[in-house]
Amino acid sequence: MECKQKAGVTLDDSLNEADIARRNRQAAICVYVHSERTAHDSIPRLQRFGCDIITRWNPEDQASDLWVKAAVMVAKAMSVRAAQKSSGEAASLDKMDRAIQALGKQIGHFEEIATWANSSSSATGKIVKKVDAMKVELEERLVTLNDELDKLKSAV
Question: How far apart are CA 91 and CA 84, in angstroms?
Fold first, then answer.
């Protein structure tokens, strides 16, 4: 795991540093966490690049802890998958990537909800509708992640 609070570090720089860190530590996977304060615009909220997982974190925002936790969960799943002998038994990283992207989108809606809640009471209908839709989406994605993790666990 690499954690940085250094301005000007681009996505390409991060991937190069992650590669060096993996080789230096003889690791198969690197989770690279950027400080939200200094993260370059090219740094994604959470994304996997081969054996590297890049994310952002804001120590002053507990909601951003979810991004780091998700990155660690993906790293664990990738580690278990790499240890499996048969590719037919392997969980789908593609499904996990899509589930992570969908979870990220839903987490992003919380900012929108906070704005609506603070703007006026007429937003109540919007809030209820968005919360209901988010709940359904989050539940579906959690089922997908649980299914994929169960595959990983049963294969080990």
Answer: 10
Give per-residue pLDDT as tens, 80-121. 776 665 555 556 767 777 787 787 777 777 767 766 776 666
Q: What is the 3-state secondary structure (H, E, C) of the chain?
A: CEEECCCCCCHHHHHHHHHHHHHHHCCCCEEEEEECCCCCCCCCCEEEECCEEEEEECCCCHHHHHHHHHHHHHHHHHHHHHHCCCHHHCCCHHHHHHHHHHHHHHHHHHHHHHHHHHHCHHHHHHHHHHHHHHHHHHHHHHHHHHHHHHHHHHHC
For 138, residues 6+ apart whose C-beta sits below 8 A from its C-beta are 103, 106
Q: What does the alpha-carbon distance between residue 149 and residue 143 come to, in Å, rounded to a whole number?
A: 10
The answer to pTM > 0.70 is no
What pLDDT was estimated at residue 122?
Answer: 65
